[in-house]
Backbone:
């Protein structure tokens, strides 16, 4: 999840270059979207913690072909 | 009207959250689905598809209308099914599921009607977020693993799609045109764009939205997510979301076509399409889990769609037709597979046998759906795949056509092994009665979807044909 956040940060710094392309409303909507996304991920992590008693996602490997 | 299509489900979502009765919340779904379908039909019939004026945020062009209509029909049928399904799931409740489904519908509609690439991106990201709780509906270890993988892979994909969108905008800046992400501005000025940035942008768009669509090798979340989600959710993801993601990729193809680089875009789609077909064919053989098998079938059909557009011409028309067929058939397949799972409390091959005797209607529909999706006449997918094949041979690629046929055969054998083993045979002795009975609300929607597919295979009305042709021509010639 940390890697994902860093990726998003990098992309948004790139977006500042093109501030004319993204009108304020869309930019605000994108930020809201990301906030909700992090919120949902936080909930999922919480549930993982509850189910597996650990935040080590390497334990999530039971789904196989 | 366009704004109503998007806003109505969105505004109904918080209303549904606060309704106290379980059944009342369930009935919000067909209400939203019905209104949405009516508006989508009105939009397709009333609005003449002409070039949208520059600077418009929302407009319905033929491609958008096609995906919107398909998604709407699928959602309506799934919403009727949901009313029956949720009666069986009183233990889990539907306080989260119904609002999430409504937001999901609204976001998909927005993605089809957006004329600004940033807005379209926003809508697709919203579908990711709103579908994650839906996959997690069963709340066990397996579904949380599936949800986690889905969130991670799709979020990275969406981030790459954003990067692609920004690269496209930068290519405009580099080329000297004023920066804008309005699709119509991009299409009219694409000739001046800086090529390297545009190509890089397209590749990122393809990879990013291809993740959501489920093209190989970006499909890794699909078997897990479709496998652990309820059948209803699987149907909407496989039929609706993949179509919307494909539309997003097609917008990129439109821009490339306008810039004169359609051949590069087509080559990329062709390569990914063939790879998806091959990978799906391999993984579908001896697949012991019914829903995972359907997920690989979805990867296969997405490969067929990419292949169709990658060849172009008649094959692109076939791809548009296949989009419709795939969405409706997947709906029928997932809903009937969900019924079978309800009856057997399992979806693995060892435990599910003899479904034709236990739940004859659902198993019959499942069998029919299998025949349809693998391309047996007289169902719709046979015609669309045949059209794509004609397009491939007509464009002078006999090798690709041969490989396509071979992979379709492998898929048929692989899928047939699982489906026949599920439906035929005798029931296992240890089968406990799970209390599930085939009822109108559970069997009607998949039946309706498969009848639609059958009708499309037997008779394609001229207006529908013209509609599909209009959509296909948008990814054809440079505007």
Residues:
């Amino acid at each position: 999840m940390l890697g994902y956040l860093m990726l998003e940060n990098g992309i948004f710094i790139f977006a500042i270059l093109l501030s004319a392309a993204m009108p304020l409303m869309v930019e605000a909507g994108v930020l809201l979207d990301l906030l909700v996304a992090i919120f949902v991920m936080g909930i999922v992590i919480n549930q993982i913690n509850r189910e597996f008693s650990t935040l080590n996602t390497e334990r999530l490997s039971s789904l196989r072909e | 009207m366009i704004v109503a299509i998007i806003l109505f489900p969105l505004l109904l979502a918080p209303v549904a959250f606060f309704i106290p009765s379980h059944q009342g919340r369930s009935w919000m779904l067909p209400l939203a689905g019905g209104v949405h379908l009516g508006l989508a039909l009105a939009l397709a019939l009333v609005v003449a598809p002409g070039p949208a004026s520059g600077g418009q945020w929302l407009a319905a062009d033929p491609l958008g209308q096609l995906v919107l209509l398909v998604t709407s029909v699928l959602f309506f049928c799934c919403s009727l099914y949901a009313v029956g399904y949720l009666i069986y799931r009183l233990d889990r409740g539907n306080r989260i599921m119904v609002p999430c489904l409504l937001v999901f519908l609204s976001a998909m509609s927005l993605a089809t009607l957006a004329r600004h690439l940033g807005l379209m991106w926003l809508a697709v990201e919203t579908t990711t977020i709103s579908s994650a709780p839906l996959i997690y509906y069963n709340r066990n270890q397996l579904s949380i693993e599936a949800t986690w993988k889905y969130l991670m892979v799709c979020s990275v994909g969406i981030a790459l799609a954003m990067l692609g969108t920004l690269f496209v905008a930068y290519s405009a800046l580099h080329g000297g045109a004023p920066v804008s992400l309005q699709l119509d501005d991009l299409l009219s000025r694409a000739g001046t764009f800086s090529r390297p940035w545009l190509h890089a942008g397209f590749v990122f768009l393809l990879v990013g939205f291809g993740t959501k669509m489920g093209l190989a090798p970006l499909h890794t979340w699909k078997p897990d997510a479709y496998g652990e989600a309820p059948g209803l959710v699987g149907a909407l993801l496989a039929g609706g979301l993949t179509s919307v993601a494909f539309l997003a990729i097609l917008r990129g193809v439109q821009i490339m076509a306008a810039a004169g680089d359609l051949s590069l875009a087509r080559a990329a789609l062709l390569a990914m399409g063939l790879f998806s077909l091959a990978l799906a064919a391999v993984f579908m053989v001896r697949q012991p889990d019914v829903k995972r098998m359907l997920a690989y079938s979805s990867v296969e059909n997405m490969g067929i769609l990419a292949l169709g557009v990658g060849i172009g011409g008649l094959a692109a028309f076939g791809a548009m037709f296949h989009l419709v067929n795939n969405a409706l058939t997947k709906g029928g397949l997932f809903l009937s597979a969900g019924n079978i799972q309800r009856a057997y409390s399992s979806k693995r091959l060892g435990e599910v046998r003899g479904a034709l005797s236990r739940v004859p209607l659902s198993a019959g529909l499942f069998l029919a759906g299998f025949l349809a999706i693998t391309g047996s006449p007289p169902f719709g997918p046979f015609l669309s795949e045949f059209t794509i094949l004609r397009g491939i041979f007509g464009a002078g690629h006999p090798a690709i056509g041969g490989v396509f046929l071979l992979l379709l055969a492998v898929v048929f054998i692989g899928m047939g092994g699982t489906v026949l083993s599920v439906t035929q045979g005798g029931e296992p002795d240890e089968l406990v009665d799970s209390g599930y009975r085939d009822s109108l609300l559970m069997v009607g929607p998949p039946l309706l979807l498969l009848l639609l597919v059958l009708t499309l295979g037997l008779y394609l009305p001229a207006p529908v044909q013209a509609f599909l042709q209009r959509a296909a021509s948008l990814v054809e010639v440079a505007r």
About this structure: The CA atoms of residues 140 and 273 of chain B lie 34 Å apart. The first helix of chain B runs from residue 2 to 18. The two ends of chain B are 27 Å apart (CA to CA). Chain B touches chain A at residues 116, 118-119, 121-122, 125-126, 128-129, 132-133, 136, 139-142, 144-149, 151-152, 155-156, 159, 162-163, 166, 169-170, 172-173, 178-181, 223-224, 227-228, 283, 287, 292 (CB under 8 Å).
